[in-house]
Write a structure and sequence with these properties.
By secondary structure, the protein is of the alpha/beta class. It has 20 helices and 18 strands. 50% of the residues lie in helices and 14% in strands. The chain is extended. The termini are far apart. Bound molecules: adenosine-5'-triphosphate (ATP) and magnesium ion.
Length: 462
């Protein structure tokens, strides 16, 4: 195990000697420097884990040197030492970013304790950052198709506000990712993001889950418990699968949302909370309202900013990027071996209907990495998993009585889309095959949106 290292910067040789000995005895690797320039050289040669720095550094100003340290390596804690201890210098040091301040002549115990604290803080920060990186990676929205770009635009607009959002989209399209991204971009980032899956909680428990309960509220309520609304206070509450909430629960939730306060089950004290609510559903809520299974007043309350997440079949261009993203995840996090995909394999995946959307794609990639021994996944391997893949993108070439121009346009549209799909969304390849430059190809694809409903509009815009 490599030892933790400490850089000590002081112009007094005596201090360097004493500190050096004490810290070495404790098992640290010690590097010393007598001037600003020497310390900067040694800093870059061998990054220390902690720095001890004298404020009165001969002709050099210790505090401005600390500024340089902090700027170059904000992750390294700096402990400032001073022989002419005044409260003022201490305050200035801490304000400029020192981790702590010790006064000369110092107690060696104090030096060791401060070193340990600084190292612990540094390790926690490092751990925190690496966890954050993993979390951010796992929740990153991958894709650069037209539908994903416009989704990202809506997220960028809605995120920084406090507006309530209703996210609709099929199973596995990434609604939870969208909700987390909105929270990340909001002023509430850093506060709690609390997720409640309304479909997974039995009706008898939902109230105590959402609103909490007081001790003794029911048999088994041995202690008081906060509900999700309270836990999310200051942050964001994701009410997931809101379409599965029963009508009585909807009524209670609506009341709490309107009054912005609640009472725990078995309690009679009003508790205020401040949450941004994001609701998500894979059901058609207006349809549920028509069937009287969902309250329209709750719908209007939640639906301030509607965001809809498109199904994967309407953004097949993202499939190659998503595959690469999942392969990287599965190889780094699950220890699976990476594999390549042939163009034919990707072409087949671009035609598939993806009823389970992105989640289904992720599961398929995992299954392929585990089950297929060959280093490259080809069309046959895909068919062994998905069977014969029928093309979801049905022909829209008109039959019979339309002018030739219209039929020609319909054919062109379909032919371009088909070629792009066959190339797995790779526009450079498609433009080589079609002998149309990429820019015009993008323009043409934009004119012909991929969905059928908008296809008509797209065509008439021309
Ligand atoms: N654009 C994307 N980029 C990367 N990963 C994605 C993307 N969309 C979805 N995923 C992944 O697919 C899986 C499903 O996503 P998520 O749980 O957000 O979907 P959902 O719409 O909430 O699904 P459900 O309706 O089943 O609750 C997750 O593993 C998620 O990380
Ligand atoms: Mg979900």
């Amino acid at each position: 195990m490599s030892r933790e290292s400490v850089l000590v910067v002081d112009d007094e040789p005596n201090i360097l000697k004493v500190l050096g000995e004490v810290l070495t005895d404790e098992g640290y690797r010690v590097v010393t420097a007598q001037s600003a320039s020497e310390s900067l050289r040694k800093l870059e040669d061998d990054l220390p884990d902690v720095i001890f720095l004298d404020v009165w550094l001969g002709p050099d100003d210790g505090l401005s040197l600390m500024g340089t340290f902090r700027e170059r390596h904000p992750e390294i804690p700096v402990i400032v030492m001073s022989g002419h201890g005044t409260i003022e210098t201490a305050v200035r040091a801490i304000k400029t970013g020192a981790f702590d301040y010790v006064e000369k002549p110092f107690s060696l115990d104090k030096i060791l304790i401060t070193t340990r604290h600084a190292l612990r803080q540094r390790n926690l920060e490092e751990e925190n950052q690496s966890l954050r990186r993993i979390v951010e990676r796992n929740y990153r929205i991958v894709g650069n198709s037209e539908p994903i770009r416009s989704l990202m635009e809506s997220i960028a607009k809605a995120g920084p506000t406090n507006g309530w959002v209703l996210i609709q989209g099929e199973n596995g399209t990434g609604k939870e990712l969208v909700a987390r991204e909105i929270h990340r971009l909001s002023p509430r980032n850093g506060k709690a993001f609390v997720d409640v899956n309304c479909a997974a909680i039995p009706e008898s428990l939902i109230e105590s889950e959402l609103f909490g309960y007081e001790k003794g509220a029911f048999t088994g309520a041995m202690t008081q418990k906060k509900g999700k609304f309270e836990l999310a206070s200051g942050g964001t509450l994701l009410l997931d699968e809101i379409g599965d909430m029963s009508l009585p629960t909807q009524a209670k939730v609506l009341r709490v949302l309107q009054e912005k306060r609640l009472q725990r089950v078995g309690g009679n004290r009003d508790i205020q909370f401040d949450v941004r609510v994001i609701a998500a559903s894979n059901k058609d809520l207006p349809e549920l309202i028509r069937k009287r299974e969902f309250r329209d007043d709750l719908f209007y309350r939640l639906n301030v900013i509607p965001i809809s997440v498109p199904p994967l079949r309407e953004r097949f261009q993202d499939i190659p990027l998503l595959i690469a993203h999942f392969i990287e995840d599965l190889t780094t996090q699950e220890g699976l071996k990476p594999k390549g995909f042939t163009e034919e394999a990707i072409g087949l995946l671009c035609r598939y209907s993806w009823p389970g959307n992105v989640r289904e794609l992720r599961n398929l990639v995992e299954r392929l990495l585990i089950m297929i021994p060959e280093p490259v996944i080809d069309g046959a391997a895909i068919q062994s998993m998905l069977g014969n893949v029928p093309d979801v993108h049905e022909s829209s070439i008109p039959h019979g009585s339309v002018p030739l121009k219209e039929a020609r346009e319909a054919f062109e549209r379909e032919y371009i889309q088909e070629t792009v799909r066959n190339c797995g969304g790779n526009m450079t390849r498609a433009s080589e095959i079609l002998k149309v430059d990429r820019t015009s190809l993008y323009r043409k694809l934009k004119q012909f949106p991929v969905t059928e409903e908008t296809g008509e509009e797209g065509a008439s815009e021309r």
